[in-house]
Amino acid sequence: MSDSRVQFSDIYLATEPYVRSAGQVRIGASGIGWKAAEGETDALEGANIPGLVLPAGMLALQRDDVRRLQWQRVARGYGLRVFMKSGTLHKLDGFNADDFETLRDGIKRLLHGLTLETRDISTKGWNWGKPDFEGTHMTFRVDNRPMFDLPMSQVSNTNLANKNEVSIEFQPPRARTLKRKNAPDELVEVRFYVPGTTTNTKKADSDGEQASGEEEEVSAASVVHDTIKERADLGQVSGDSFVQFPEILCLTPRGRYNIDMFSGFLRLHGKTYDYKIAYQQVQRLFLVSKPDELHMMFIVGLNPPIRQGQTRYPYLVLQFVRDEELAVDLNFAVDEGTRKFESRLRAHYDEPLYRIVATVFAGVTEKRLVEGGAFRGYHGSQGIKASLKASEGTLYPLEKGLLFAPKPTLYIPHSDIASIVFSRVDASSSNKMRTFDIKLNMHGAQDYQFVSINREEHASLEAYMTEHGIKMLSELNETTAVSYKGMDMDSDDEGRGAARSITKGAAALGINSEDEDSEEDEDFVAGSESDVMEEYDENYVSSGEGEE
Questions:
Q1: In this structure, are residues 51 and 60 in contact, taking their beta carbons and an 8 Å threshold?
Q2: What are phi and psi of 532, to 5 degrees?
Q3: Which regions of 270-357 does DSSP assign to beta strands (E)?
């Protein structure tokens, strides 16, 4: 170690979560530098750390760009926190306690005008304190001492759960690239109870009529919520998106949102909720036509899903008017990250809006866009109307699976289906129902039943199942299997449900079920009236009904 620099080995760069790369730190007159050790650069692949040069694995922090330096206790011994004037916070962990004096003296000697501050962490364990925002981090303080930090760059969403409660959701992007056995536990949500009110200064309106400086009383929770949105860059677009789609109707989650697309993520900005969605979350893309042939639905499958409190939304369902056209320009010169899209997308589009949005999504996520297949219903539509439990929607038979939309949105690959059972499809005179049902028996998963399907769709749906080699069963087969099992039971413990099952199964086999306590009727004549008329004759009138 010479007088012109100070050097430390086995120091970890901890600026971004899940980065486990050790290297060497050097402090000189020009600033602070970190370089990954040999064989450690692979851990930095995909890291989005300002100033980090890849694949060399070098980070150079110029002295004139550094605002503050802090020393504090961390999980890996002790750490150096470097606050930049741009608002970025760099973390270097792995120092020993004995390194403090050497580091302090070296900073004082080489980095003129900067001193090494000592940051004492609160260990009281209290759950009440005060949030303090500095740069891109929020610090929770207890007795004016920091307890923990929350990086605003990792915030995916924030909202007011109620008038005094602020919810912050996190979705670290790098954790999803790790194998399950290596993936760490992650903080996905934290909530703060912020009581009371505070005064806030009103800003001047766009027309200038409202004078600035006027104070109004607002809830303290709303002030914290707005500050988090601003620091996490979840609010209005600041001009750094390469394309924006305004006022898009979203069926799930419900509302109208502005969609702003950046180099690594997209942002949904609504009146109440805002979402930040990384492109790595997008797993599937569907574009289908609604049965009315007037609207198109663009469906985006997400993993992990976005959340509103305890409600999860694994799919975004956007609806467009089919005839709505728009001219859109894409600005690939926003930053270096957006230039990679030039080879996948055009700079100008002038076509239906739904087609533009679907094309841009497919280009930035590099996912295949699945459109309505060759299936056509009785009236020529891509899907057929059906209900899943109490929810009405449309069932789309696609090339490799079945899609139900809009709510709840469900995609079922053909490979997950063991068999399909058609119910109430008999066209005999005794069955005048206009609809039928289908039940999907799954491989080791929950079965699904779609009901209230128009009878006219049966032929096309059956042809689709045959074409794709999906095993089909009739309701008679399933009932028969149940009836044999029920007929072997002599115990009354099975209750009335088992008795009804036996009766239905026997009727399906053409057997007249009798009460087990009744005796043989020796006076029965084949031509006499029996319960057959009551069961099969739609004009039959019982004696009780005749008297009325």
A1: yes
A2: -65, -40
A3: 274-278, 282-289, 295-308, 311-321, 325-329, 348-352
d(CA 288, CA 314): 18
Give residue-wise pLDDT tens across range 382-406. 999 999 988 999 999 999 999 999 9
Return the number of other C-beta atoms located less than 10 Å from residue 545's C-beta.
Answer: 8
The separation between CA 68 and the C-alpha centre of its own chain, rounded to angstroms, equals 38
Assign residue 148 a region: left if phi > 0, alpha if psi is -120 to 50, beta otherwise? Answer: beta
451 closest CA partner among 542, 381, 389: 389
pLDDT tens-place string over residues 301-337:
998 888 876 788 999 999 999 999 999 999 888 777 7
- CA 486/CA 475 separation, integer angstroms: 17
Q: Which residues are CB-contacts of 309 (< 8 A; sequence separation ≥ 6)? A: 159, 161, 167
User: Phi-psi region for residue 344, left (φ > 0), alpha (ψ -120 to 50) or beta?
Assistant: alpha
Sequence-distant (≥ 6) Cβ neighbours of residue 414 within 8 angstroms: 400, 401, 402, 468, 470
Maximum Cα–Cα distance for the chain, whole Å? 120
Look up residue 155 and give its two tokens.
């915030």
